[in-house]
Amino acid sequence: MTKAAGYVHGYSRHEARRLGDQADILADLLHADTVYPAGSRVLEIGCGVGAQTVHLVAASPGAHIVAVDISGDSLAQARARMTAQAPGAMVTWHRADLFDLPFADGAFDHLFVCFVLEHLPDPASALARLRRVLRPGGTVTVIEGDHGSAFFHPDSAPARAAISCLVRLQSAAGGDALIGRKLQPLLTAAGYRDVVVRPRTVYADETRPTVVGGFTRITFTAMVEAVRNAALAAGLATPAGWDRGIADLHRTAGDGGTFHYTFFKALAVKPSRASP
Amino acid sequence: MTKAAGYVHGYSRHEARRLGDQADILADLLHADTVYPAGSRVLEIGCGVGAQTVHLVAASPGAHIVAVDISGDSLAQARARMTAQAPGAMVTWHRADLFDLPFADGAFDHLFVCFVLEHLPDPASALARLRRVLRPGGTVTVIEGDHGSAFFHPDSAPARAAISCLVRLQSAAGGDALIGRKLQPLLTAAGYRDVVVRPRTVYADETRPTVVGGFTRITFTAMVEAVRNAALAAGLATPAGWDRGIADLHRTAGDGGTFHYTFFKALAVKPSRASP
After folding, report:
1. Which ranges of chain A would DSSP assign to H, the alpha helix?
2. What predicted TM-score, i.e. pTM, was given to this entire model?
3. Residue B1 has pLDDT above 60, yes or no
4. What is the interface size between A and B, counted as CB pairs within 8 Å?
5. How many CB atoms lie within 10 A of CB A94?
6. Nearest CA distance, B223 vs chain A (angstrom)
7. A87: cis peptide before it, omega within 30°?
8. Cβ of B72 under 8 Å from any chain A Cβ?
9. CB distance from B203 to chain A under 8 Å?
């Protein structure tokens, strides 16, 4: 059975906070239009530290949300986050491998999969396998980024090289940081229909200080910065080259700088007569 | 005085049709929210063959539109296009250099500049110079692409190299195919205020055949293909490498392929007390 690949971003407390900040800032862009009816059964795959779960609950307070993750530590943090932010929320937590879910066929009306496929060696198999627990006619929502969508001003070869290090590390860990552009073919190949994928673009310039601070600095640049040691250890960068790249990324958050990044959000349906 | 740089795309009849197709397909995305009040005086800079002008006229039938271009041949084609598509349109055509416009200070309520700055050696000076003919409180609308925003599935190094050839040729001709990301700092530096820039993204996959055909194939890939001879003559590509890159671009328009490209649209205001 295929297992989840290594998680390139690590499990530190600092990383948990970064994921929380990221989810808050991106909530409107990525999640505002995901609203599940009261009483519907929703399965969040790979909830991690609950960064997206709190937004699911806020947007769909009447839905029955089940959140699974393969990491017990992450689930403990997710519970704590939810207790602090939404104490009365109807969330059930399960530690489980998404390739071996402890749920009956068709147990859920909706699946929610955010920033998960990018870390899997075989996202196509994962999507196909997940179909089993979705009822015919139920929906799957998938959200992923694509680091190839990052471009900025001033442009910088060292900054592009630093981002490329993250892409290569994620690839070496069995993941794919360029997966956003592949969501439509992945979902179609996995047997879903009515696949609709749309870009969700973050654009920052000095007229939007909240986006500059909240995305360019503390989400994207911080994510790249966090793999410094791994990049150097893998021989993908020199210390001087790396530091120049990070400095140049920070420069895109200064006056006159701009930054562009695209997420992709997909919605698809499980056919009524699905093959297993 | 700075002059317009070489126009990398050329002036052929084939190119004129490509520009027309492109403008039609992108009209909703780029122009739908540009509506000028009846009686307002609008100056379109660098109208070329009138590809955008027909959409300006359609959206703002009561505005007085003046369109200028440095090429008499292009203007002739623009007139013919307008006569065919909107015979009663209130458009006045002028052959003029945008650095030496034959209009009084403050003669216009609005400026419209689409796919022009990318071809100029000094777009900052152009924007600053244009301010003279805009009345205080009047608006400037600027639309540009950014070829660094192009990414696709399946990814392909030869396809990226072919795009890079176009970027380098445009740069060698004095232009900048990566200008979209710079619009906010350019407009701010040129003395405009209330600068608002937003990405306008084209995303194509097999579920959107109109976009695949209309953008990936006949707009973007055709634009790259058109510089084959120039790229080979400049020694930027080998025939085999080039043809592979173009074939791979076409492959992104096939089943399971995806394509992403971002335009930027800017709106800014001339301050009431502007320095010249």
Report:
1. 13-31, 53-59, 72-85, 123-130, 157-172, 183-189, 209-211, 222-225, 228-233, 239-251
2. 0.91
3. no
4. 84
5. 14
6. 21
7. no
8. no
9. yes
